[in-house]
Design goal:
Layout: H1 7-20, H2 27-37, H3 41-55, H4 62-69, H5 74-86, H6 89-101, H7 106-119, H8 125-143, H9 148-164
């Protein structure tokens, strides 16, 4: 069974480790590491170790942590939402193709879009539920090896439909 620590506890552990191992990382970097690791200290330590090796003694930055963790960069997620909000299928398709060609996992996009939709104050609860239902459908299809491109296009079209209702 996996135990999770509170955010402040994990932050303190990571700060102590960073200090003892002479790892250069800011408090903001530690906070980002806690967020990315989802409260899993082992995962956070592994990310910190990997980032430290990758930076070669330089300060561990959020971008390095993002790359190591497998998260899709916030700028990329913002680009997807911008394409959805544009109402242009051509822009949307180009962004999805680019996402796949960069090697990002479709399941990771599903997870991050889920968080972004829940945090979006411009969508009604009904709109959020429509997108969330589509997220669940895409997640299920991806789990049984459905085509990533088609699933992401379908998901993003649903997001587009809900976002352009607010314009």
């Amino acid at each position: 069974m996996q135990a999770f620590l509170k955010g402040t506890s994990i932050s303190q552990w990571l700060l102590d480790i960073a200090e003892k191992e002479n790892v250069k990382i800011s408090n903001e970097g530690i906070a980002y590491l806690v967020k990315v690791s989802e409260g899993d200290l082992r995962k956070a330590i592994t990310f910190l170790q990997s980032a430290t090796r990758l930076t070669g003694g330089k300060e561990v930055m959020e971008k390095v942590i993002t790359n190591i963790s497998g998260l899709i960069p916030a700028e990329t997620i913002d680009g997807i939402f911008a394409a959805c909000q544009s109402g242009s299928f051509d822009k949307l398709e180009a962004v999805v193709k680019n996402l796949i060609s960069e090697g990002h996992a479709a399941t990771q996009l599903v997870n991050q879009v889920h968080v972004a939709i829940l945090e979006n104050d411009n969508l009604s609860d009904k709109q959020k539920s429509i997108v969330t239902e589509k997220l669940a459908e895409a997640d299920k299809c991806l789990a049984v090896s459905a085509d990533e491109h088609l699933q992401l296009i379908s998901l993003c079209v649903t997001v587009m439909q809900q976002l352009i209702q607010n314009c």
